[in-house]
Amino acid sequence: MEVGWSSTHRSTCVLLVDPARPPPQIESVLAEEGFTVRVAVDSADALELATANAPAVALVMLGVADAPELVAALDARDIPVIAMAAAPPSTIDVVTRSRLFAVLIEPVRTEPLVVALERARDSLAMLREVATVRARIVQLERDSQRYREAQRDRVATVAHDVRASLAIIALVLSSLEADLPASTHRKVALARDALARAGAILKGAIEIDSVPSSGGPEAGQHVTAASR
Description:
Order of helices and strands: EHEHEHEHEHHH
Radius of gyration: 35 Å
Helix content: 55-70%
Shape: rod-shaped
CATH architecture of the domain at 6-133: 3-Layer(aba) Sandwich
Strand content: 5-15%
């Protein structure tokens, strides 16, 4: 049967598990469709090949010994499993069936087999892409948190230095006021007011910078306090 998907399957490895060894035509059909086939005759052989080849899909004949355990082990490795069975899916236990990507009843025609393998491969690729995106999001959140913490440290350092400078200026004004003529006392008072305003502006800037940007509970508390 001509299916025409050969080019899309290049480099796609399929693990084929059959205790009786699969008929040569299955391997040849999959090879013609562009799949790379690795054949295992039992569970131990299958897991060894899965480790060595990282298949995109596993095609398991349910007649293999310990089939439920093999399906569970492959599923734990995020390898989609397509089962080929002589009996209807209703005869497969519920737990095993929940771990299967699809069940094909023998005899299997080429087109449904290739379609199932294609969909399983694409499903795995999508899951891996989602996992990569999620990991990237987590990393970006961590980087953002580290940046915010570093920014708060810088603000705290600058605030400390500015407060120290304002305090020194205030002490100098106080020490000079007694020696200055009365005509300059108003100017000293204006300078003190300016220092107080600078201190208030600095405090407000620090409080704004300390408001969390995530919109979490702490941010809500700051907003509530500011609106009073």
